[in-house]
Design brief:
By secondary structure, this protein is mainly beta. It is 0% helix and 45% strand. The chain is built from no helices and 13 strands.
């Protein structure tokens, strides 16, 4: 048998493939539609085309945080065993009737079991609300840890108001409608489950 020949020259590198589709987080909208749990409204991935809602609460310093409204995802949503860490963005509309003191909206995010046990995951607060007209605010928050879930757990977001003013301040949270549909960008990438 003869000797093996020399290896040929390497060919040119091929063209780079097209960039894949970007994965974006599920957007959840605060909706003034009653859920299957009394006193909780819905947190859905489909925006409403209905009437804008202006929810409010009167609060003063000694009250601490006062609940404006509680929201919950649909039964079975998100239907996963862990909540991924990542980027959350709260894009919402708010105002106050009086700018005295420092007034804030506080979002508290929980996981809720089918038995009704709620465990807080994180909380974020708005800046000082110094607007007596409806104004948009955006808050970014990044979670660094994965949160374990039961596959039938749901996500709850409670919206609170607080103030440093000793007299009552009315804090407003505006949502629904076509113009000021307050919502949250989440790290969830799974398809949504419709209203139940």
């Amino acid at each position: 048998q003869g000797f093996q020949g020399n290896q040929g020259l390497q060919g040119n590198q091929g063209n780079q493939g097209a960039v894949g589709q970007t994965t974006t987080g599920v957007i959840l909208f605060f909706q003034d539609i009653a859920s299957n749990i009394s006193t909780y409204a819905n947190l859905l991935s489909i925006p409403t085309s209905g009437v804008e809602n202006d929810d409010s609460v009167s609060v003063r310093q000694n009250d601490g945080e006062k609940l404006i409204e509680s929201y919950i995802t649909s039964i079975g949503y998100p239907g996963i065993s862990s909540l991924p860490n990542g980027y959350w963005e709260f894009d919402f509309w708010r105002y106050v009737n009086n700018t005295s003191g420092i007034s804030n909206i506080v979002f508290r995010v929980y996981k809720r079991t089918t038995g009704g046990t709620e465990t807080q995951i994180f909380t974020v607060s708005s800046g000082s609300i110094n607007d007596t007209g409806i104004t948009e605010e955006v808050i970014q928050y990044t979670t660094t840890s994965v949160v374990s879930l039961n596959t039938d757990d749901r996500i709850v977001i409670k919206v609170f108001a607080k103030t440093t003013n000793e007299s009552s301040i009315t804090v407003h949270f505006v949502h629904d409608g076509n113009i000021r549909a307050s919502h949250i960008h989440t790290p969830l990438t799974q398809g949504s489950i419709g209203f139940q």
